[in-house]
Amino acid sequence: MRALYLPEDFVEEGETLIKGEKLHHLLNVARVKKDQEIVLLNGKGSKAFGQVAQIDKNKLKILVSGSTTEKRPKHLAHLGFGAPKKDALENCLRSCVELGIEKIYLLECERSQKYPLKEERLERIIIAGMEQSNNPFRPDITVCALKDAPLERYANIFLASLKKGGGVDSETKGDSLLLIGPEGGFSQDEEESVLRLKGAAPLNFSTPILRTQTAVPALSAYLAAKLEP
């Protein structure tokens, strides 16, 4: 179903008018039609269901008939990854949104790509991912150095590594964080500093070496399946 992110204008029942840039996108990109069903997302877990009732040059009217509120799954690990190249970064963020990752740390580390991050571009990627996947939860993104990430708050840290790990099972308790390096991986010093922390362990797949944009969805989905109650 066509989705629209409306954090401020969100209504659970009644009329909603769409104007400005969102109207342009719906008419000229999504090409919505009268009577088409629409789901509205507020980024906090709520979905409102409606139908396009009127289309004018400067506005679009949606009649909202009902809503639901979802609970965020508890088994999803938070995720931190070293910034890869720009195209790969965008793919990683889209995967995070589609998987329902709640918290993303975009990490500056020794081998991460160095380029200015435009908040407006990151915003567009996140919103597009929410609308494409009908995900009602907006992820929180923090840009920071690996050494400044709040690793100590996590009971479990799974670090993607070539080292053999101890495995993951459904008995794992507490908040979990998945760490994935940039292209080339974390440096030896970075790996050792993380693995010295209580609750940290390497996570290894018996596959060829994965690119960051492959590792993000693959390892995130693996952990979600393992940690699901």
Describe the 3D structure.
The protein has 229 residues and is of the alpha/beta class. Helix content is 28%, strand content 28%. α2 (86-99) crosses α3 and α2 (86-99) packs parallel to α5 (212-227). The model has no long low-confidence stretch (mean pLDDT 89).
Task: Itemize the secondary structure elements and their pairings.
Layout: E1 2-5, E2 14-18, H1 20-29, E3 37-41, E4 46-55, E5 60-69, E6 78-82, H2 86-99, E7 103-108, H3 119-133, E8 140-145, E9 156-160, E10 176-180, H4 188-195, E11 200-203, H5 212-227
Parallel strand pairs: 1-3, 6-7, 6-10, 7-8, 9-10, 9-11
Antiparallel strand pairs: 2-5, 3-4, 4-5
Please give the number of β-strands: 11
> Assembly state here?
single chain
Give the class from helix and strand content and strand pairing.
Answer: alpha/beta
Specify the overall morphology: elongated
What are the segments in which pLDDT stays under 50 over at least 5 consecutive residues?
none
- Count the DSSP helices: 5
**Strands of the largest sheet, in order across it?**
8-7-6-10-9-11
Order of helices and strands: EEHEEEEHEHEEEHEH
Major sheet description: 6 strands, parallel
Distance between the termini: 29 Å
Strand content: 25-35%
Gyration radius (Cα, Å) is 20 Å
What does the average pLDDT come to?
89
Helicity level, as a percent range? 25-40%
Task: Give the structure's gist in a few sentences.
The protein is an alpha/beta fold. Helix content is 28%, strand content 28%.
Task: Write out key terms for the chains shown.
five-stranded mixed beta sheet, alpha/beta, about 230 residues
